[in-house]
Design brief:
- The chain has 442 residues and is of the alpha/beta class.
- It has 3 domains: 204 residues, 2-enoyl-CoA Hydratase, Chain A, domain 1, CATH 3.90.226; 124 residues, no CATH class; 51 residues, Nucleic acid-binding proteins (OB fold (Dihydrolipoamide Acetyltransferase, E2P)), CATH 2.40.50.
- The protein is built from 14 helices and 20 strands.
- A 6-stranded parallel beta sheet has the order 11-6-4-2-1-14, sandwiched between helices.
- The protein is elongated, with a radius of gyration of 37 Å.
- The C terminus is likely disordered.
């Protein structure tokens, strides 16, 4: 009997272990990656880093949350290709509530293994936009449009989505909320949260680069992806508005610093220019560089060659303003898909900020020029006229008034008060004067 009891305990222990649901016993991890703002080089670098981390910690899936007005088409293609080549399922999720995933964001969503949206979110508006002197215009070039339509339809077919509907995102700038997108089979899931999404897709079979995989995501541990410092710096600097302003401020402060060294303005100017070039994923217009160079050249001529501050200096400031305007990203049709509203807002911010910066530094430069001119004038004494206040003799200096200032003066002659004198020399803080005489003809 004593031998039977331990055997019974062992039997019940094994039976209870087998009765446990293997799915409830799973210990899985899901990496949550946030992509918000413009899709640019920094977001592509972020996604690459996230995929590497996901592979290193062997996550069950990656949830890619999208909240974006759009962005670079090349970066969008790079992200989409990385998703297709990934052995880890990537779940695209327009999140949080009320967020859009327009243009390039829609392209990325359609490229994910599972497409999902939160309540009150929107996708669509994927027709290319071009920025010119006449404002923002939609690109209708059939070669570009047809290529993008076919690309997006092929991604939709890859994951059994409605290819005919997704083409209208480009050809008609169609927009859909989450309910419409689900009904038209553009997405697979509407979820209120990341946890809700993972519960709904649990057990779903997805096609990855290494074959079909069954998702075991119910109750998975969520790990928020934290980009490296390098990625965070690039994300900040890659903002087109900040990049443009850094270049403008850098050039202006460098110029001011060269005029009045010792205050660190030239150092800030060089650093600002370097940071602008580092974060410039947006090609700087050649015409913009020409205008900026011309502006700096004209201001240099005004300061070093022509005395004062006149039309040449004004022309330099105008050139700087025009050049700063040309720094705004042009979003050519073959490189960019982005919301028109975003472009217009960026245009207004950059132009206003650039004009304010140029005006401020122009005023600062004007003050520096005034100070320099005043210092030069203070050093000119010889030949100037002053009026004596005291009686001046060879043995007893007295005071004279010169341009409203009182100076001690000496003379080889006796000069009475209130007499006009000519300054013939300056010795330290002492002026040497003589009476002013009028020339007479013999």
């Amino acid at each position: 009997m004593k031998q039977v009891i331990p055997l019974l305990f062992l039997f019940f222990f094994i039976l209870s272990s087998l009765a446990v649901d293997p799915l409830s016993a799973q210990d899985t991890t899901v990496l949550v990656v946030e992509i918000s703002g413009t899709i640019d080089q920094s977001r592509w670098e972020l996604f690459q880093e996230a995929i590497r981390q996901a592979e290193s910690i062997e996550v069950e899936a990656v949830v890619l949350t999208l909240d974006t007005p759009g962005g670079g088409l090349q970066e969008t293609f790079d992200i989409a290709d990385a998703i297709q080549e990934s052995s880890i399922p990537v779940l695209g999720y327009v999140y949080p509530r009320g967020s859009p995933a327009w243009s390039a964001g829609t392209f990325i969503l359609i490229s994910t293994h599972i497409a999902a949206m939160a309540p009150n979110t929107i996708i669509g508006s994927a027709q290319p936009v071009q920025l010119g002197f006449d404002g923002t215009t939609l690109v209708n070039d059939t070669k570009t449009i047809n290529a993008l339509v076919e690309w997006l339809q092929e991604r939709a077919r890859l994951y059994n989505r409605n290819a005919s509907i997704v083409s209208r995102f480009i050809t008609e700038n169609l927009n859909m909320n989450e309910t419409e997108a689900l009904q038209e089979e553009v997405i697979e899931v509407v979820a209120t949260s990341v946890g809700d999404l993972l519960n709904q897709v649990d057990g779903t079979v997805v096609q990855t680069s290494q074959g079909n995989k069954t998702l075991l995501t119910a109750g998975a541990e969520l790990v928020d992806f934290s980009p490296s410092i390098k990625i965070q710096v690039i994300q900040v600097l890659s903002n087109p508005v900040l990049t443009s302003l850094l270049l403008i401020l850098g050039i202006l402060t460098l110029f001011i610093g060269l005029q009045s060294p010792g205050f660190g303005a030239e150092v800030f100017g060089v650093i600002a220019i370097m940071l602008s070039l580092l974060g410039s994923g947006f090609g700087i217009s050649t015409l913009g560089i020409i205008f900026l160079s011309l502006g700096v050249l004209l201001l240099a001529i005004e300061v070093f060659v022509i005395p004062g501050f006149g039309f040449v200096g004004i022309g330099g400031l105008i050139s700087l303003i025009i050049g700063s305007i040309f720094l705004i990203p042009t979003y050519p049709s073959h490189e960019w898909l982005i919301s028109m509203d975003y472009i217009q807002e960026a245009l207004v911010v950059v132009v206003v900020a650039a004009v304010l910066a140029v005006v401020f530094f122009g005023f600062l430069l004007y003050k520096f020029l005034q100070i320099r001119k005043k210092k030069t004038e203070m050093g000119v004494f010889v030949g100037e006229i002053a009026i004596t206040i005291d009686r001046i003799t060879p043995d007893a200096p007295g005071y004279v008034r010169y341009k409203g200032e009182y100076w001690q003066a000496t003379s080889d002659e006796i000069i009475e008060p209130k007499t006009k004198v000519v300054i013939i020399e300056k010795q330290e803080a002492m002026l040497v004067v003589k009476p002013k005489t009028t020339k007479t003809t013999p």
